[in-house]
Specification:
Layout lengths: L3 H16 L18 E2 L15 E6 L8 E3 L2 E8 L2 E8 L5 E9 L14 E3 L2 E5 L4 E6 L5 E6 H5 L13 E3 L2 E8 L2 E7 L5 E5 L10 E5 L2 E7 L3 E5 L6 E6 L12 E3 L2 E6 L4 E10 L2 E11 L13 E3 L2 E8 L5 E8 L5 E5 L5 E6 L2 E6 L3 E6 L6 E7 L9 E3 L2 E5 L3 E6 L3
Parallel strand pairs: 1-27
Antiparallel strand pairs: 2-33, 3-4, 4-5, 5-6, 7-8, 8-9, 9-10, 11-12, 12-13, 13-14, 15-16, 16-17, 17-18, 19-20, 20-21, 21-22, 23-24, 24-25, 25-26, 27-28, 28-29, 29-30, 31-32, 32-33
Length: 415
């Protein structure tokens, strides 16, 4: 039987442990579990540690613009070495190679060589999309090829000028990508067999990745193509609505975001943003505008970075001028489109959010952690991890994964 003092100490230990409990989560695809750049993880860094975030491992992977997807102890990315595009699987805890699968010959492009899209891990499979538009399914266990389609050839189209950048989306037994071919802006395939399920649209594909959004109480795939935003019924592939959104060189790249009861789309190079209002009556959908913010005075021009919605506020990169020579980090009221604060000349980067914080990568190869608050920019700290990167970090089970054109680095983000 415990003495009273011993019992008190035991209770204090239990309470302390309870207060420090954190939740962990995987990062199975581009922009995380719900493709909105947000993780439900808690128990992450609150104060910047002396010496920065601890580095756990670093692994040479090769050329490519793909991000990192993580499920359990499996981390996958796309890369290019030795004249081939590959899907590379690593141990998420150690960085050691688990398997490597050849996907296609090397992809070369004036905007950078190698694959662009981030893999998606789902249903024991890894879905990948190469720079020229080959969609494949691999076994997550060993990288064995399960099925593959050359989509530009299959649908009579051609790859996007700067390479196919769409990350596959798995929804209800199908995998969805943007193709940009006649009659196939977007196409879906059965995850198990690879059999074509549906295709829809007539726009070029652009460089965005589709998302499954709740639009006024209905689940819709929203795709931001080279010339429009499309609302698509996930099962039947029926086109529900279309909103024209033309930009130079079809450079619509950010993923659509559900915000303030509507759908936010945004593009850089001095174009701007629109919050779309989608309504339905008698089975027919109508699309309008809750607000727009275009041109030189726009509050949000997302070049390739998808804005993050937290508690009614959008956090994102505002790229000012042609090709974004000046970039501000900004907070915008999602209901009105009005700017709340701006960290001027922050520089180009990308971001995700978790546990009330923004985890930001920069083109200078830095990782920056700041509080996600409309009260103003509050930086916790920053450290240089890579040479240069456009990819946003991936957050899984207390660790951040970030890659550039050469390597992946894993750092500890948990307290």
């Amino acid at each position: 039987m415990l003495h009273t003092r011993s019992l008190r100490w035991a209770l204090l230990i239990v309470l302390a442990a309870t207060c420090q409990v954190s939740s962990a989560a995987d990062w199975p695809q581009f922009l995380g579990p719900n493709r909105n750049g947000i993780s439900a993880e808690t128990g992450l860094i609150e104060a910047w540690p002396t010496g920065g975030l601890p580095e756990i491992w670093r692994s040479q992977v090769g050329v490519g613009m793909s991000g990192v997807a993580v499920v359990g102890d499996l981390a996958v990315t796309l890369t290019q070495t030795d004249g081939q595009q590959w899907c590379l699987a690593l141990d998420a805890k150690t960085g050691r190679n688990r398997w490597k699968a050849a996907l296609a010959p090397a992809y070369e492009n004036q905007m950078g060589d190698g694959p662009r899209a981030t893999p998606t891990i789902a249903d024991g499979r890894v879905f990948v999309y190469t720079g020229e538009g080959i969609l494949s399914a691999l076994s997550a266990d060993n990288g064995k090829l399960l099925w593959s389609h050359d989509l530009p050839k299959q649908f009579g189209g051609k790859p996007a000028d700067y390479g196919m950048a769409c990350s596959p989306l798995v929804v209800g037994g199908v995998v969805v990508v943007q193709v940009g071919a006649p009659q196939a802006t977007v196409a879906a395939f059965d995850v198990a067999s690879g059999k074509a399920a549906w295709n829809v649209g007539e726009d070029g594909c652009g460089y965005s990745s589709p998302a499954l959004l709740n639009v006024r109480g209905t689940q819709q795939i929203v795709a931001f193509s080279g010339g429009s935003a499309l609302g698509i019924a996930p099962t039947a592939g029926k086109l529900l609505w279309r909103y024209p959104f033309e930009t130079d060189y079809e450079c619509n790249t950010a993923t659509p975001v559900a915000a303030a009861g509507g759908v936010l789309i945004s593009s850089g190079e001095n174009h701007g943003s629109a919050l779309l209002s989608v309504t339905s009556a008698g089975g027919a959908f109508d699309v309008g505008e809750q607000w727009t913010s275009f041109g030189a005075k726009s509050t949000l021009r997302s070049e390739w970075q998808t804005p993050i919605l937290l508690d009614g506020y959008l956090y994102g990169f505002d790229n000012v001028g042609s090709a974004g020579p000046v970039t501000h980090l900004t907070c915008v009221d999602a209901k009105t489109g009005e700017r709340v604060w701006q960290k001027t000349r922050f520089g180009k980067g990308n971001l995700i959010a978790a546990d009330g914080k923004l985890f930001i990568s920069t083109m200078n190869g830095e990782l920056v952690v700041a509080r996600a608050t409309p009260e103003g920019y509050q930086e916790l700290g920053r450290q240089e991890l890579l040479d240069s990167t456009r990819q946003a970090p991936s957050l899984a089970n207390g660790f951040l994964y970030l890659r550039d054109n050469r390597e992946i680095v894993c750092v500890k983000a948990a307290r």
